[in-house]
Design goal:
globular
Length: 281
């Protein structure tokens, strides 16, 4: 019979996985390069491409969140013992980290992206609100199919791919609201509708887990029962996390947008259609 780990053992389960460390370094280098903090031959960066202190703070916060999510004991508990802990990890990767990252990017740093017609066209299509919603929620749902989910817990390479798709899909779903190029964001009214629509798929998945009467994932069924939580109770808790806390980032964004809308009105010059990209210099 498997031994249930002690608290003292769990809190020391910090990982120094090389792939995660290299990933954090790569993201940091890409951000600093994009914002002109690393030298680039023949390129004079404008002031608009430089991040403010607040944006730098948001970026390093996003990196800290990512490191804690993937390297702390949360990762060990998620992978081996508790479905509910895994849901916390997934929601941070898909909903919290992408928002912090997008908020940290200066508008001027993204103009080069839209200056390339083919790249701009791809970005425009994959971040078109209905497409972004479909990609995000389809990705989230597919990875929770029992056979796929069990595979992520037994094959580390598949697990890495899963996490990367969550992060990428999270960036896409936040893009219409947090596009660094502000005039390409949706209007306040459409932002509210868009975020409201995004609440329901995750809520539906959470409700399913909360009321389903059988544990779905074999690795968690066979795992030692950490803190005496049964596999079914753990699954129900995970469902509640998706159902309620999982939508908090989007609900909080709706609240902030609503307050700004009431205070400043809805800027009439803000464009929502894809052809607006062509207007960028």
């Amino acid at each position: 019979m498997a031994v249930i780990p002690s608290w003292s053992w769990l809190v020391t389960r910090w990982s120094l996985e090389p792939s995660i460390i290299l990933g954090l370094i790569a993201v940091s280098a890409a951000y600093l390069y994009l914002c002109g903090h690393l030298p680039r031959r023949g390129d004079a960066r404008s002031v608009a491409a430089r991040p403010t202190r607040a944006q730098l703070a948001l970026f390093w916060t996003s990196q800290a969140v990512l490191a804690i999510c993937l390297m702390s004991p949360l990762d060990a508990v998620s992978d081996t013992y508790l479905f509910s802990a895994h849901m916390i990890q997934h929601l941070v990767l898909a909903s919290v980290w992408p928002a912090l990252l997008l908020l940290s990017i200066p508008e001027g740093a993204m103009r080069g992206l839209y200056s390339r017609p083919r790249v701009a066209q791809v970005v425009t299509w994959v971040t078109f609100p209905p497409a972004a919603l479909l990609i995000f929620n389809t990705d989230l749902s597919i990875w929770h199919i029992p056979s796929w989910y069990d595979l992520t817990l037994t094959d580390e390479n598949v697990h890495i791919v899963e996490h990367l798709t969550f992060m990428a899909a999270g960036i896409l779903v936040w893009w219409p609201v947090l596009n660094p190029v502000r005039r390409l964001r949706l209007s306040y009214a459409l932002q509210e509708l868009y975020l409201f629509a995004n609440l329901f798929p995750m809520m539906a998945l959470g409700i399913f887990y909360s009321f389903w009467q059988h544990p779905l994932y074999a690795p968690y069924i066979a795992a030692p029962r950490l803190w005496g939580i049964s596999a079914l109770t753990d699954q129900k808790i995970g469902g509640l996390i998706m159902w309620m806390p999982g939508d908090i980032p989007f609900a909080l964004a709706m609240l902030i947008i609503g307050m700004r809308w009431l205070e400043y009105g809805d800027p009439s010059e803000r464009v929502t259609a894809a052809p607006a990209v062509e207007a960028l210099p």
